[in-house]
Amino acid sequence: MRLATRDNGTPDGELILVSADGARCMPAGPGASNLLSAIEGWDAVLPVLHAVAARLLAGEGEALDPATLRAPLPRTWQWLDGSAFPTHGELMQQAFNLPPIETDKPLMYQGMSHQFLAPTEDAPFPSAADGIDFEGEFGVITGAVPMGCSAEAALAHVRLIVLINDWSLRTIAPIEMKTGFGWIQAKPACSIAPFAVTPDALGDAWRDGRVCLPLTVTLNGAWFGSPNGSAMAYGFHELIAHAARTRCLPAGTILGSGTVSNADHAAVGSTCISERRAIEKIAHGEFRTSFLGQGDRVEMQVGADAAHFGRIDQRVRLTG
Q1: For 290-308, b where at least 16 C-beta lie within 10 A, e where not — what string?
Q2: Cα dihedral 122/320/132/96 (nearest 10)
Q3: What pLDDT digit, counting tens, does each position of 105-124 carry?
Q4: Residues 144, 251: contact at Cβ < 8 Å?
Q5: What is the pLDDT of residue 93?
Q6: What is the rounded distance in angstroms from the CA atom of residue 1 to the CA atom of residue 137?
Q7: Hey, is 22 helix, strand or coil?
Q8: Is the predicted pLDDT of residue 97 greater than 80, yes or no?
Q9: How many CB atoms lie within 10 A of CB 320?
Q10: Which of 26, 34, 130, 249 has fewest C-beta within 10 Å?
């Protein structure tokens, strides 16, 4: 199933189901008025969603207007972001002479969750001097996860899979990291592609707790990268177990993979400017790619037709 949220003037929007070709949609109905409430009552709501999906499959539904779509979860209880692609970290360490992080556990931080940007709305930032960057990554939306959940049991709690642009401000990030207290200013609101899909909708591309598909990024119409999500050192089941070791996770938790990055980056490119700059620093001794400014356009999708998650297509808007 492909779920989306349509703007209806409320903070959480209206939950709709979308046909496989992305052309038609139907409201999920009063029992699942928005996605957050549906996730919280998933077992009871799922038969209702399947019934609506069957009607869509039979040809029912109204024309989908992409301009009305918000992030699938415009707001939620918790956003946790990992850094599960080792190549990304290794390139950062080499380019900036950083010591390796001595840990055998996944890297993860907790970010803001009260706002996720719609896939086509302008992304607002105070100043280009803050080092505006995009980060393409995959994410999962979980049901309620009990404290101490094992990695073996964690995949059963994955309800939906999403495509995320984790906007970052690179000038601010190292300053905040030195405090030892984590990111606040360096991590503004993320964006999420319009469609959240159930794991079965990905077929064989969902395996070992990983989205085994290339994530394609273009910047101002030029290809930037298409690394594959299969290269995670830790699968989502392991990230969930890590997050839940000492806390329960509320239904509606979004957990990200971190920047999708592959060892063969020379061929497949990158999904963030910072990684490309690190590669340039290693190869040429200097940065050659600038961070973003007013009007720069960032697009992200999976597959040539963006069939699974739809498309993120945003421009930078400076507010200062």
Answers
A1: ebbeeebebbbbbeeebbb
A2: -170
A3: 999 999 999 999 999 999 99
A4: yes
A5: 87
A6: 21
A7: coil
A8: no
A9: 9
A10: 26
- At residue 182, does pLDDT exceed 90? no
How far apart are alpha carbons 250 and 296 in whole angstroms?
Answer: 36
- Report the length, in residues, of the chain: 320
- Angle at CA of residue 15, ends 168 and 164, nearest 5°: 20
- CA distance linking residue 113 with residue 254, whole number of Å: 9
Residue in 278, 84, 81, 100 with CA at minimum distance from that of residue 186: 81
Closest CA to 74 of 122, 116, 34: 116
DSSP type of residue 40? H
| Rg of the chain in Å (alpha carbons) | 19
d(CA 96, CA 287): 11
- Report the chain's mean pLDDT, rounded to a whole number: 96
Question: Which neighbouring-strand residues pair with 211?
Answer: 206
Distance CA(177)–CA(199), nearest Å, equals 34
Residue type, 96: F
What pLDDT score does 269 carry? 98
Helices (H) then strands (E): counts for the chain: 8, 21
DSSP of 195-259: -EE-GGGGGGGEETTEE-SBEEEEETTEEEE--BGGG-SS-HHHHHHHHTSSS-B-TT-EEE--S
Looking at residue 147, the DSSP 8-state letter turns out to be T
Measured CA to CA, the distance from residue 137 to residue 164 in angstroms comes to 5
pLDDT tens for 5-29 read 999 999 999 999 999 999 999 999 8
Assign 3-state DSSP to the chain and report helix, strand, coil percentages, each to 5: 30, 30, 45
Higher local confidence (pLDDT), 3 or 90: 3
Tokens 């505006």 found at: 132
Closest CA to 271 of 216, 189, 194, 193: 216
| Phi then psi dihedrals of residue 216, to 5 deg | -100, 130
What phi and psi, each to the nearest 5 degrees, are found at residue 125?
-140, 145
Contact 152, 190 (CB under 8 A): no
